[in-house]
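INFO worker-7 received task bundle
INFO bundle size: 2
INFO processing item 0
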Amino acid sequence: MRLRDYIIRRLLLLIPVLIGVSVMTFALTRLIGGPLGAASIYINEKCLQSDTCIDAVIHKYGFDQPIPIQYVNYMKALLQGDLGYSKSAKLLVTDAITSKMPATFELASAAMVIAVVFALPLGVLSATRRNKPVDHATRVLALSGVSIPVFWLGLMLKYLLFYFPFIYLGIKLLPIDGRATSGMYGICTSRVSFPLCASTNLYTVDAILALNGTALWDAVSHLILPALTLAFVTMAIIVRMMRSSMLEVLNQEYIKTARSKGLSEKVVIKKHARRNALIPTTTVIGLSFGGLLGGAVLTESIFTWPGIGRWSADAVTQFDPAAIMGFTLVAAVVYVVANLVVDVLYAYLDPRIRLGE
């Protein structure tokens, strides 16, 4: 089976999974208080003050009809991007997701790049230097990453890289909240202009496209602390998986054969061991990235990062059912897509998978 056919088959298998996700989210919306609870995702503050308006919303969206018809109406609204009104964001849920998802994507991407760049070499080094000082140091680092609470790590980084230098040295190393300096980024119009104009809503990408070095450093400096916080936790998981995978691969017969043929240790590690060790590690990387995209709630809250994770936390505290359901749906879809990407990478790294062996 060719890789293209394998990808098509995996895409087709996503259809029942996504239908299952829609059924679960539909059931959750109907379990929060009958027709009125279901209709609450479309009721804003003004409509809430009028019984006539509430009854009109219930009738308009068919919440007084049989459950099968309600599910059909739910799917129609879902396919049209109608997920209700978010009281916490004071926006339509679709607009809130569209405006906040780029911030989370940028943060998650930066954190994952940092984690992968450092974790994979450390995992390989730890496995090839087993029980040596570098191995012990790497294992301590990995254990710290999975043991330290992310909110504590974020607060310590804020203290060490902002408060301590500012209080004792009088310098500001890195900003500790937001995505950019106030007034640096925005939607440029004929009446309003910003140093960095919104295009992709990814600040670093927009700064690069605009060839604006000042705006790029501003965006990167705001990104460093939250990205390091997320990356440290993610890196620890990847290091442990890469190390254990490498140790298992290094004991395989084909590695012993490669060594007996006189190949250098560098060639054995790079061309024979590392690629096969990446197969199980790919799962961890893909699912970790899916988790980060699903909303790094604590990190975004600590650093006042205006992403989907912080929005979902505000939605819970303010009992915003439309936002909660929208976030649940986005998180589920992100995980499904992450699994698809992992499966495709599996097939690329190991042809036996797509050949059904």
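INFO item 0 finished
INFO processing item 1
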Amino acid sequence: MSSTGEVEAPAVDAVRNDMVEVLTGALGDAVESSVVLPGKDLWVRVRTDAWLEAGRVARDTLGLTYFCFLSGLDWLPSPFGRGEDDPTEPAPERSSEIVQGVAGGSTRFQVFARLVSPVRHLGLTLKVDVPDDTLEVASWVPLFAGADWHERECWEMYGITFAGHPGLRHLYLPGAFEGHPLRKDFPLLARMVKPWPGIVDVEPLPTGADDEGAAAE
């Protein structure tokens, strides 16, 4: 416990490190990388061909039986900038390099899922690279029935296919809709025509000079 009375996170998290060892023992070199935040969380990235088996090991061996969610990630920096940018100012220079988040990666798109043990109160975020040429990974519906709608949404919004899914079809968009709205290179025309509301609705904060002037009055 710290001098302020707060409980400090351990420097080494033996429990989560053991979870990584179990996954590595079952999947071998298909475990690409892992990140342990001691006392708080765990991320593991696995090879694409091990995605289904990684979920199975997490469920059956680690006891992570509660499926929280599954979604996609597009790490491409938006070619349109940010919606929060002030359209009256020159756009700031930003890197076009693709940089993946926690646990790294080697592709533009990734799929990630969150599993939790309701008994041990531990969670795991599993991630997988989505091959650029096929945009396909295995479906988790055989493991978790609840993954059905999550994968349909991911397919619809990112264009990622889930092999073995019983019926990928639209959840939100019309059947004839073209494109995938959550891809970074999908143009959000509404934001191009009208700036993000937060830009025009927020009043500037008073400066120190303004405060002094008000006090003098």
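INFO item 1 finished
INFO post-check item 1: The longest strand covers residues 66-74.
INFO post-check item 1: The radius of gyration is 22 Å.
INFO worker-7 idle
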